[in-house]
What does this fold into?
Amino acid sequence: ATSLGILGNVAVLLVYNFRFKRQEHRYYIPVLAWADLSGCVTNSVYFNTLDVYHVTYPSDPLCRLLSFLVIFNSGVSSHVILIIALQRYLTLCRPFGKQLTGRARRFSLVIVTVLALIYGLPASYASGTHGQNKTSTCGIVSEDKKLFQKTYFGCMLFLNLLNILITAGLYLPVVRIVYNSISRLEETFPENTETNESGETVGGSKVSRAFAKHSMSLTVLCIIIVFIVSFLPSLIIQSLAMKQANVENSTSEINLYHFFGRFYTFNHVLNPIIYLGFDKKFRRKIISLLFNHKKT
It folds into this structure.
C-alpha cells in the first residue's frame, strides 16, 4: 500500500508542480503531497523495522527519529487538510469576505510546520528502545516515563480530535452549499457548456456537468472523509494503549492492534487516488504522461 502511495504522491508532485499553472485553489495540494510522500516512506521504514526487529531493535536514535517523523508528518498532513477546508469555506461560504492571500497561505504553512514540530519533538523523548534479557524493542508505551507518555499522548489525542471536529465543522456548510447547487443545476443547467471552480470548461449531461462544476469541493470532501476515517481507529487504539500497555493476550488481538494502530497510513496513500478520480485535469495529465512515456 505504501508503495502505491509513494508512486501516487510523486505523480501528484510532478503534475501539480510542473504541468499546472499556479492556482489558488490548488495551492495546498503539492504541500499535502509532500507530507503524504514523506509519511508513506517514513511509515514504511518505521513499521518494517518494527516487524523485522521486533525484539532486537538495532538503534535507539533510529527509533526516536522515526517516531518523531511519523508524528510530524501526520501533524503536517492533518493541519494542511484543515487549512484546505478553511480555504474552501471562505471561497464558497464567504465569497465577499477576507480570503487567504498569498502571504497568508505562506504564513499558514509556517504555523503548520511549527505545530507539527511541537507535536513530534516530545515523541523522540517519549519513545526509545527498551527491553530485558538482551531484548530490545522500539516503542512509545513502556514503564519508563509512563506519566509523561500518558500526558503527552492524552494531549495528542485531544488535539487530533479537535482538529477533526474543526475540519468537519468548517466543511459541513461547504457540503450544504455544494449539495444545494448541484440540486439546482440538475434542474436548470442549460445545454451549453459552463466553467467549473477551476475555470475549466465542462460538458456532458446536466448531472455530470453539475458534479464537474464542483469537482474541487468534492475532491476536498473525499480527502476529509478519508482523513477522519483513517485517523479515528488509530486514535482509539492509542488511547486504549495508554490504559493497557500489554495487548499481547492473543494473536488475533495483536493483529487487530497493529492493523488499526497503523490505519492512519491510508490517509497518506489514498489522496492521489482521490485526485485521479475527481480532478479531470489531473487525470488527463497523468494519461498524457503515461502515453508519451510509452511512445518514447
Notes: The first helix runs from residue 2 to 18. The two ends are 29 Å apart (CA to CA).
